[in-house]
Design goal:
Elements lengths: L1 E5 L4 E5 L4 H13 L3 E5 L5 H12 L3 E3 L4 E5 L12 E2 L4 H11 L5 E5 L10 H8 L4 E4 L8 E4 L5 E6 L3 H10 L7 E6 L4 H13 L4 E3 L5 E4 L9 E3 L4 H13 L3 E5 L11 H8 L3 E5 L2 E5 L7 E3 L7 H9 L4 E5 L11 H11 L3 E5 L2 E5 L6 E3 L5 H10 L7 E3 L12 H7 L3 E5 L1
Length: 424
């Protein structure tokens, strides 16, 4: 599907969808808990459905219907799946289910779509192997398809936190291991998302001794997770596109459902836009964004790699130069988002330089044209927002990918006044 967006003035109120990161953690921990858990107001998307299907294959019962999902857990003892687990496009599900599958007493086969089969899990494979889990990549390249055989015993291991999801997977699995575990962490990226995992683990009763700098964890084995009832907060990663659309769209957009006290890393986008000159105010449970001129800035993106597609677009419309740096892990997402955004923005006339860990963007606006969305939901949504301020319409293909994390994106944008059209 091809989506075309044109210069538009946005006005109105929009509800931000629930957090994918919170929803998947809730699904995994609910599946490992003893008893029935209630996940209130979850995100219902391709990625969260992949997580639900994965834990169902591992023995949890999950009713993923309506505004509350009910999960009856397996009390820390998942079963060996009868078939291959396909995580679709969800890297979060792949990495976290690697830990979950390590609790079984047998082999689990994990695979996913073509993007997933290009994303390495080497460091997590090594870390789990150090805890007694048999693991290998069928192609010997550290990527899915992966075979996992537990049960995880515990012991001493180390992990390179290229993505925070490696460490999160270990933290969720190790309390349920037979023995105690000691984890040394190096090169950790995306630290706020590890703190989110720790918050969830504390909520289900896990006892983890983690150093303040997140470089070491000592975890007692043989623990149990208690069932829970918890409401999922709004997703700052998805809100990034609405925040930036409000800034670039020239009107006034009110976003509801965001909690600035939540540990999500992408809430930093609010402050970053403010630093760049955006007009942002807070009112009770709402964030209000008004169209405003932006100025360039130097931004450390390490904690918020998912925001790099959208922030690179904003930088194109900012006055002066913007540096988006310290985010090498953005190359390991659904696509190499550094190379992809540099290449596609150049098609639209951007003055942009690629760095090993980011990019330098000299503002000046964008012209219209057709770009490739690469089947990456965040690239597709960022390019759609770009069309709201470009000189002429921007067309982006593989637009259906937006449904991976933000199924209501198109309807929400149109409700705010965005001029969007589609063709097959």
């Amino acid at each position: 599907m091809i989506a075309s967006s044109k210069k538009s003035r946005l006005n109105g109120t929009a509800a931000v969808p629930a957090s994918k990161s919170h929803t998947i953690r809730a699904v995994i921990l609910g599946a490992l808990a003893d008893g029935e858990s209630c996940i209130e107001a979850p995100l219902d998307s391709f990625d969260t459905r992949s997580a639900a299907a994965a834990v169902r294959a591992l023995g949890a019962e999950i009713d993923a219907a309506g505004d509350t999902w009910h999960v009856r857990g397996c009390a820390g003892r998942p079963i060996v799946p009868e078939n291959v687990i396909d995580v679709g496009n969800s890297g979060t599900t792949l990495y976290m289910v690697m830990g979950t599958a390590s609790l079984t007493d047998g082999w689990t086969v994990l695979t996913g779509d073509d993007q997933i089969r290009r994303r390495t899990a080497s460091s997590l494979i090594d870390a789990l192997s150090g805890l007694g889990v048999e693991m290998f990549s069928t192609r010997g390249n550290g990527c899915a398809p992966l075979l996992v055989r537990g049960p995880i015993r515990g012991g001493e291991t180390s992990v390179v936190g290229v993505t925070s999801q490696y460490l999160s997977s270990l933290l969720m699995a190790c309390p349920l291991a037979r023995g105690d575990s000691s984890i040394t962490v190096t090169g950790l990226n995306e630290r706020p998302y590890v703190r989110m995992t720790l918050d969830w683990l504390d909520f289900v009763g896990a006892n983890i001794s983690m150093s303040d700098d997140l470089s070491h964890a000592d975890i007692s084995g043989g623990q149990e997770y208690k069932s829970f009832s918890r409401r999922i907060p709004g997703d700052f990663s998805s809100a990034t596109f609405l925040l930036c659309a409000g800034v670039l769209g020239g009107g006034r957009v009110v976003l509801k459902g965001l909690d600035m006290n939540d540990p999500q890393g992408d809430k930093a986008v609010v402050d970053i836009l403010g630093t760049m000159g955006a007009d942002i105010t807070f009112n009770d449970d709402s964030i209000i964004v008004s169209g405003s001129a932006l100025k360039g800035a130097e931004i450390d993106m390490n904690a918020i790699p998912d925001a790099i597609p959208m922030m690179s677009v904003c930088a194109c419309f900012a006055e002066g130069t913007t540096v988006l740096g310290n985010v090498p892990q953005a190359r390991l997402k659904e696509t190499d988002r550094i190379a992809v955004m540099v290449g596609e923005l150049r098609k639209l006339g951007a003055d942009i330089e690629e760095l090993p860990d980011g990019m330098i963007i000299h503002g000046g606006g964008l012209k219209g044209g057709r770009v490739h969305g690469h089947g990456d939901h965040r690239v597709v949504m960022a390019m759609t927002v770009a069309g709201l301020a470009a000189d002429s319409p921007i067309e982006v293909d593989t637009a259906e990918a937006a449904g991976v994390t933000f199924p209501g994106f198109w309807d929400t944008m149109r409700s705010l006044g965005a001029g969007i059209a589609f063709e097959s």
